[in-house]
Amino acid sequence: MEILYLLIPVSVVLVFAIAVAFWWSVRSGQFDDLEGPAFKILMDDDGPNIPNSASTRKDDSEKV
User: Fold this and answer.
1) Distances from the Cα of 47 to the Cαs of 2, 22, 57, 63, in angstroms?
2) Which pTM does this prediction carry?
3) Residues 25/18, Cβ–Cβ less than 8 Å
């Protein structure tokens, strides 16, 4: 029964800390756009990572 004197204040402090962290995340804009990052993956504009064939041949000939 005496453990309740410790657990109740600890749980109140924990709930308060979680509420502060949630309030901070809402105020800083963490939940503004939930779908945007998922669409950014699909709309990737990067070209293929193909090395330049002329520079590859030049590097191979220098090693010989």
Assistant:
1) 66, 39, 22, 29
2) 0.52
3) no
In this structure, which amino acid lies at residue 43? M
- Domain spans, the chain: 1-29
Q: Per residue in 8-62, pLDDT tens? A: 999 999 999 999 999 999 999 888 887 887 787 777 666 666 666 655 555 555 5
Provide the CA 53 distance to its chain's centre, in angstroms: 36
Establish how many alpha carbons lie within 13 A of residue 15's alpha carbon, considering only the half-sphere containing its beta carbon. Answer: 6
DSSP sequence for 2-30: TTHHHHHHHHHHHHHHHHHHHHHHHHTTT
